[in-house]
Amino acid sequence: MNLQTYLVTDDRLSTHGTVETVTAAIEGGVDIVQLREKSMTARDRYELGRRLRELTREAGVPLVVNDRIDLAAAIDADGVHLGDDDLPVAVAREQLGEGCLVGRSVSTVEAAREAADAGADYLGVGAVFATGSKETDPASSSIGLDRIRAIDDAVDLPFVGIGGIDATNADAVTAAGADGVAVITAITDSDDPEAATRDLRRAAAGVEGSA
Which of 45, 68, 93, 105 is the catalytic position? Predict the structure, then answer.
């Protein structure tokens, strides 16, 4: 599983709309897409998810759904990404099958170990830096690169850093131990999401001159 560049959708923060943004990100080489869209109704998320499922399946890019195991099943997504208030990892596995991807959001070493023990496939760690894209608990905000290093030392699971990341600092996050970076506005708010994705990929890979 390649997690180098991980796009989280949010139509409210998208210059071109989610479908066009995901299409461009795929052209730019995005590795995985998460359908988030918490402001949409379940029906609208379902319809959007069906369209994204077509795009990602054709491109061979995994699609996961934020929070909603039922929605992930309904659109035949590759998996689900869960937070503290969502159903447990084991329930997602039971509902979606052993072959599904199950991601888990964490911000501490203890939570990372618990997610690994529960059978998560990968972690989303953050918020690494300050972010305005997502409401986060103060204790889970701006956790910094030292926490990335600590979680890298503590668990063997692949993980992405998320929160306040763009092409100017993605290299620092992967250098600290993350397998990749997850972003919203670094791609969705760009005038050219395809180019933004390429820049992010180069930065996450530690290629100079990416930003």
Answer: 105
Q: Does the active-site annotation cover 142? A: no
| Look-up of token digits 């600590």 | 150
- Residue owning tokens 């990335």: 148
91-123 pLDDT, tens digit per residue, is: 999 999 999 999 999 999 999 999 999 999 999
- Fold held by 5-204: TIM Barrel (3.20.20)
Q: Is 134 one of the catalytic residues?
A: yes
Q: Helices 193-204 and 18-27 meet at what angle, rounded to 10?
A: 50
Let me know if 36 is a catalytic residue.
yes
Identify the active-site residue in 45, 53, 68, 134. 134
DSSP code of residue 169? T
* pLDDT range class, residue 90, cuts 50, 70, 90: very high
Q: Which residues fall within 8 angstroms of residue 40, CB to CB, at 6 or more apart?
A: 11, 48
Residue-wise pLDDT for 49-64, tens only, equals 999 999 999 999 999 9
pLDDT tens for each residue of 28-43: 999 999 999 999 999 9
Ordered by start, the domain boundaries in the chain are 5-204
Q: Which of 36, 68, 93, 147 is catalytic?
A: 36
Distances (CA, A) of 69 to 22, 46, 61, 112: 21, 12, 19, 21
